[in-house]
From TrEMBL:
Alphabetical UniProt keywords: Repeat
CDD domains reported for this sequence: FN3 (cd00063)
Pfam families: fn3 (PF00041)
Protein name: Fibronectin type-III domain-containing protein
Signal sequence interval, chain numbering: none
Compositional bias annotation for Low complexity: 941-957
Organism listed in the record: Danionella cerebrum
Length: 1353
């Protein structure tokens, strides 16, 4: 192995007497070890030497050995990484070989030193009298807690002895004298030393010449902690605790080791008495070391601990659906373990006790009792140490019951169930009665019960009975089936179906379940027919039967092998009479004849009907009769004659109709109703009945109306013409007539024009003649308040008129009417205003070089406002001011000095204006230097304004020229200002989705052009437009529908510009489709598809009626809004469907939908609307054929579900006069078109009045009635072809004269004076039913009977 040799000359000092020491060090060069030796200094004395070196190791221990004597001593650690070694008893003046050896890793270093030679004894007395040297390398170290060792290096020279001192603070603990000169270490064992305390030590070197002293500090070794104990907290944690050590210490530390490997080390507080370690591995053995530290010394205590094995996890006890076994399973425990111990307990008794390998995680336990609760206890074992128990409970499945029996006991709603108890443990039973997998009844009984009863069941139904054995949460069941007794059919009935040879039997379905029916037909106990029907049928028809015969029908219900029966009786329909006809007829009679009906007939009944109402009581005729005479009939009336054949309760009907001659109409009245092309004819019906009315106009034009309409309108007639009308009453093929004449309203004049000359005080009105017939024209002149000023009549040949000498500025109204036969047409109204007069005494003068004052006097006539316009000669710069009628002057400022201006003052009255102008000039500035006197000319002085006005060129508002003129020098300067911004910027989309229109007002000043830029919200320029200065508008195309844009308008003047910006957006596209999905009486479902290629935010839904409707989102339930203004905004951009509720039945709605873009902003845009028109359905009401179709069906009544409008509400009728009634009502809550008012005389059921009125009327006057008769008024609502139920009220007309007074006045009740008579009487004898009392007449007479006075009150 190679070696390294180093020579050190005079290392860290020079030996005594000037000798040189050479040191040679040899070390291994294979690698530098941890405790490498690096010698730094060597001190050689007479008989000892001190070697100082450094080592990088942290826990190294060194010894030094003399090669000749083989003596060794331990090296001490002076400070961090610095060590010292002392070699004693060397031979003076000799060469000594030393070796330094590391006890930690075997590192060594060899060195050779030369001691000093011995001084002759002749020199000793001289040296003895000098002061001794100081010891060096003084150290105080503890070997244990009661022993301190003091080591040093002897001083140079001579000395007599050592004095050793040891202090504890200021108290001397030891004081000893040491005489040996060769002594360099002394150990002191004192039981009074406090472990861990710091002590001070001193070595005094004494001789005859004096003494020297060196001090050092050292600490006694601390004691270790006492009573070290370990407590296991869990499988993965423990706590170590101890008692404080004796003596003093500074800090504590704890280390956790496993197999001499350090896992965790922590520093503790001075007063700590315990420490816990977490996250340990279960089943491992750990060593815990607690170390006491005092300075650089420490003392440790050790203890060992083993953590218990971990518990298993996921322990489960499952029965796997079995009644006699349980499976135990768990997840393996963490850490070390040897085995698992498994115990199975029932209550507190151990049933199984097993140990299994640590690799097994499940096992099956068999031979257990059904339905029993067990507990499984699993523990983990390692080295005879077991973990905590993990417990799980489980129960075996209970056993099923045995020998189940079910019986219905012959009842329709009853089932009884019985069984034998199940084996093993059962908590109770649950019995479920099911109908087609649906539980009907559920009973829970105890384990001691073995039967139960079910009632209130469905007859004939097959039930499933399931009995479940219950143990804990587990069930085990068995099922059986049984059927209840079926029920018989209900209310069996028969019908002949209006046939002579048929019988129909029908019934109500029996309750419960059944399979089929058996229907049998018998007569006098003899079976005629028998049929089997499906269970869903509820009727049966038997054909080929004898007319009028009585039969017995039996219906049997079968369910499985069980059945129940019910029966009824039925009779066939008899035959009708044949050849029913009218053999003779007259105005008031009809002769009826017929041929006898075939088969068995009991009797005939004859009925005379009008409008399905009986005219006479029913007439019974014997079965042998074949004719009958009907008399006292109403002329012109259409009657229905019914002849019924009876056999038992059944009948068969034949009928015919006949009609009498009608009467003519009465009270014929013709009115034009203020219309120029219409005539309205009305009448009251004559007595009797009619089919329709036909109205002839001038015998050339005719119209037919139904009989219930008593008026007719003729349209498209010639205005102002007289017509002749004839009304024909038609009943069947017969008719009568009544005639009268009427005139239409003349047409108004056309093209009325009013003209006023500019400087005149007159108006000229002209017109075009009206169409049709007219006699003359009325022309009226009125002021603006409507007061009549002039009224003239013009013949039909004149078409204009001139009004003169009118007031200037006054507004006039001219009304023109045409006249035909005394009937005036509608007015034509025109307005005209006289031109206002100009102002008077107009003057204008310059107040300064930049201002002008204008003054005037008020004009004549009427005027509203004044406006003053001031312009320069080229009219390139104008300024305008306006004021009220009180304005008489104004001032214009900021003008150009020395400029000629024209002031125009206009008088305004309405849209008319008149003005006058005057010229003036502003004063010019005169700029003259203050120090030099030069001649100068004032170009724009007021005196020279007229002669010098053309010297300066005209400048714009953006360029100002200032000149200073002298005799020798003319200085000009031009100033340019930024142009003004455009004003009144307005952007309109005009409902266009791809274009925008911009317009603005041109700013003042000079403009060289405009630039219009369109940007999107991201700042991207869409387009740029450069426009000339005269432009005030621009259209931008190719934009995206519904998108927001940023508009910039820049006004340019040379190189300068100003801009105005505005945010706007285009209109979105409309929805692609809009439709109504489902319409009911009060709601509609709306659906639409959003637009493509368009931006939008919301949709706006509007409806035409201002109804309070409810809008519900069908896609997101819970979202709804109630509005009454027909407006609703809905979000979303996908296909939507909404439900609109709260509509009125029968009402038509116009619904529109628009897309909205920019909702909630100032630039909201709407698309073109799409429309959908709907009408809600009418409510359904039940009616009979007799009410809705006026058809009488003998024998039975058929019901219809006919939709119709609602009825009127709060009908009230009262007498208006002896011949009229006044009725009022509230409209129905649905849509409708007309009201029909019918009035019949009570008792006779005669129709006395019938009239149709529009839907807007709620008050009606019924006229042409008889005095003091009781009438029934019926008001019916019509909607299209549908009618509502009629609302009726009965009331009486007034009497035709007042009744006789029933009041009697006693003399005692009369108060008399000289000229008066005062008395009181009661008016209760006059009823309000007879009408209102208008006045009383009181006659006062003298006792002789002469009438003195007549007083009406």
């Amino acid at each position: 192995m190679p070696s390294l040799t180093t020579k050190l000359v005079s290392v860290n000092g020079t030996p005594t007497l000037g000798e040189t020491t050479v040191i040679t060090t040899t070390a291994s060069t294979s690698m530098l070890k941890q405790c490498q030796i690096n010698i730094s200094s060597v001190e050689v004395h007479l008989d000892y030497g001190v070697v100082m070196f450094r080592s990088p190791g942290l826990s190294c221990s060194f010894i030094i050995t003399e090669e000749d004597s083989r003596r060794s001593s331990r090296c001490s650690k002076e400070e961090q990484l610095v060590y010292s070694c002392v070699v004693m008893d060397l031979t003076p003046g000799a060469t000594n070989t030393l070796t330094i050896l590391s006890e930690s890793d075997g590192e060594r270093a060899n060195l050779t030193i030369h001691t000093r030679p011995n001084v002759t004894l002749t020199l000793y007395p001289l040296l003895r009298d000098t002061a001794p040297g100081r010891v060096s390398a003084l150290r105080l170290q503890a070997t244990d807690e009661r022993t301190l060792c003091l080591s040093w290096t002897p001083p140079r020279g001579f000395w007599d002895r050592y004095q050793m001192l040891l202090w504890d603070g200021t108290t001397v603990v030891e004081n000893r004298t040491l005489l040996a000169h060769t002594l360099s270490e002394f150990c002191l064992h004192n039981r009074t030393l406090v472990p861990g305390r710091n002590y001070r030590a001193a070595i005094q070197v004494e001789s005859a010449g004096g003494s020297t002293q060196e001090e050092c500090y050292g600490r006694a070794a601390p004691r270790s902690v006492r009573w070290l104990q370990v407590a296991l907290l869990s499988e993965s944690s423990l706590r170590v605790s101890w008692s404080p050590p004796e003596g003093e210490w500074q800090t504590l530390s704890a280390q956790l080791l496993i197999a001499d490997a350090l896992l965790e080390s922590r520093d503790l507080d001075h007063d700590a008495l315990s420490s816990s370690f977490q996250n340990l591995t279960p089943g491992h053995t750990y060593t815990i070391t607690v170390t006491t530290h005092s300075g650089g010394l420490s003392s440790s205590s050790h203890i060992g601990a083993t953590t218990p094995p971990a518990q298993v996890s996921g322990l489960q006890l499952s029965n796997l659906g079995r009644t006699d076994s349980l499976e135990v399973s768990w997840s393996p425990a963490v850490g070390r373990l040897d085995q698992y111990k498994v115990q199975l307990l029932q209550d507190s008794m151990v049933v199984r006790n097993l140990s299994v390998s640590h690799t097994q995680t499940q096992m099956l336990l068999t031979g257990l009792l059904p339905g029993t609760l067990y507990r499984a206890v699993v523990t983990t074992g390692h080295s005879s140490v077991f973990s905590k128990q993990m417990i799980a409970e489980g129960r075996t499945v209970p056993a099923v019951v045995r020998e189940v029996a079910v019986s219905n006991s012959g009842r329709m709603d009853f089932l009884s169930v019985s069984w034998r108890a199940a084996e093993g443990f059962v908590e109770g039973y649950t019995i479920v009665l099911s109908d087609r997998d649906h539980a009907v009844h559920t009973l829970a009984v105890s384990s001691l019960t073995t039967e139960c009863v079910f009632t209130s069941l469905v007859p004939g139904r097959l039930y499933s009975i399931t009995i479940s054995s219950r143990s804990g949460v587990f069930r085990n069941q068995t099922s059986v089936q049984q059927r209840t007794q079926p029920a018989a059919v209900q209310n069996p009935s028969t019908s002949h179906l209006a046939r002579e040879d048929l019988l129909r039997v029908y019934w109500r379905q029996p309750t419960g379940d059944f399979d089929h029916y058996e229907v049998s037909l018998t007569h006098t106990g003899v079976m005629q027919m028998n049929r089997s029907l499906h269970w869903s049928q509820s009727e049966c028809v038997f054909a080929g039967l004898v007319p009028g015969r009585l039969y017995t029908i039996t219906v049997s219900t079968h369910s499985g092998e069980l059945h129940a029966s019910s029966y009824t009786h039925g009779r066939t329909l008899p035959a009708a009479v044949q050849n029913l006809s009218i053999s003779a007829s007259g105005p008031e009679h009809l002769q009826v004849c017929w041929a006898a009906a075939p088969g068995d007939v009991d009797h005939y009944e004859l009925q005379l009907l009008f409008n399905d109402l009986k005219v006479f009581p029913t007439i019974t005729v014997s079965s042998s009769s074949t004719e009958y005479l009907l008399s006292s009939l109403t002329p012109g009336r259409l009657y229905k004659i019914l002849l019924s054949t009876f056999s038992g309760p059944n009948l068969r009907v034949r009928f015919i109709t006949a009609r009498t001659v009608p009467s003519s109409v009465q009270n014929l009245h013709i009115s034009n109703s203020g219309q120029k092309r219409e005539l309205r004819v009305s009448w009251t019906p004559g007595p009797g009945d009619v089919d329709r009315y036909t109205v002839l106009l001038d015998q050339t034009k005719q119209k037919s109306v139904p009989k219930h309409i008593n008026n007719l309108h003729f349209q498209d007639l010639e205005p102002g013409r007289q017509y002749s009308l004839t009304v024909l009453s038609i009943s069947g093929s017969l008719s009568s007539n009544c005639s009268s004449s009427g005139r239409t309203v003349p047409a108004p004049v056309n093209s009325v024009l009013v003209d006023s000359a500019m400087f005149s005080r007159s108006l000229v009105v002209s017109w075009q003649p009206p169409e049709g017939v007219f006699d003359c024209v009325y022309v009226q002149l009125r002021d603006e308040r409507g007061a009549l000023l002039e009224n003239i009549s013009q013949t039909h040949s004149l078409t204009q008129h001139h009004f003169s000498r009118l007031t200037p500025g006054q507004l006039y109204q001219i009304q023109i009417q045409s006249v035909s036969g005394g009937i005036q047409s509608d007015s034509r109204l025109a307005r005209g205003r006289i031109t206002p007069a100009p102002v008077r005494n107009l003057s204008a003068y310059s107040e300064s070089s930049r201002s002008v004052r204008v003054h005037w006097s008020p004009p004549l006539g009427v005027y509203d406002t004044f406006s003053v316009v001031l312009c320069d000669e080229e009219e390139s710069a104008c300024e305008q001011k306006s004021g009220a009628a009180e304005m008489q002057k104004c001032v214009f400022s900021n003008l150009q000095p020395g400029t000629r201006y024209r002031a125009l003052v206009q008088t305004h009255s309405g849209e008319k204006s008149n003005g006058t102008a005057v010229w003036t000039r502003t004063v010019q500035f005169s700029l003259v230097p203050s120090l030099e006197r030069h001649e100068h000319r004032d170009y724009l002085s007021p005196e020279a304004s007229s002669s010098s006005s053309g010297r300066f060129p005209s400048r714009s508002s953006s360029e100002v020229e200032a000149r200073v003129l002298h005799k020798e020098l003319t200085l000009s300067m031009f100033l340019f200002a930024a142009p003004a911004m455009v004003s009144s910027l307005h952007v309109d989309c005009r409902n266009n989705s791809e274009s925008l229109w911009l317009r603005w007002t041109r700013p003042e000043g000079e403009i060289s052009g405009y630039t219009v830029r369109i940007l999107d919200l991201n700042g991207h320029i869409h387009s740029t437009h450069t426009l000339p200065p005269e432009s005030v508008s621009q259209q931008v195309q190719g934009l995206w529908p519904g998108r927001e844009y940023w508009m910039l308008v820049l006004s340019h003047s040379k190189e300068l510009s100003s801009r105005v910006e505005m945010h706007t957006r285009t209109a979105p596209r409309p929805p692609l489709s809009f439709s109504s999905v489902e319409i009911s009486t009060s709601s509609v479902d709306l659906s639409w598809v959003p637009p493509d290629d368009s931006d939008f935010d919301d949709f706006q839904l509007q409806w035409s009626r201002a109804d309070q409707l409810l809008l519900i989102d069908s896609d997101q339930s819970g979202n709804s809004d109630e509005r009454g203004q027909g407006l609703r905004t809905t979000g979303g951009n996908s296909s939507r469907q909404w439900h609109l509720a709260g509509l009125f039945p029968g009402r038509r709605y116009q619904i529109s939908l628009r897309a909205v873009s920019g909702s909630g902003t100032n630039s909201t845009r709407y698309s073109e609307p799409v429309y959908s028109s709907i009408r809600t359905r009418e409510r359904s009401t039940a009616r009979t054929f007799l009410t809705s179709h006026r058809v009488r069906v003998v024998g039975y009544v058929c019901m219809l579900l006919s939709p119709g409008p609602s009825r009127v509400r709060r009908l009230h009728c009262r007498p208006q006069s002896p011949s009229s009634l006044s009725c009022s009502w509230s409209p129905p809550q649905s849509d409708f078109d007309w009201y029909t008012i019918e009035c019949t005389l009570e008792g006779s059921e005669e129709l006395a009045y019938s009239q149709r009125t529009p839907r807007g009327n709620t008050v009606h006057l019924i006229q042409a009635l008889q005095p003091h008769r009781k009438y029934t008024v019926t008001v019916t609502v019509l909607s299209g072809g549908l009618r509502s139920d009629g609302v009726q009220q009965s009331t009486s007309t007034m009497i035709d004269r007042p009744p006789l007074p029933g009041a009697h006045i006693e003399e005692s009740e009369v108060e008399l004076s000289r000229s008066t008579i005062l008395f009181h009487f009661n008016c209760s004898w006059f009823s309000d039913a007879n009408g209102a009392i208008r006045f009383f007449t009181i006659i006062v007479m003298e006792s002789s009977g002469a009438s003195l006075s007549l007083c009406a009150l």
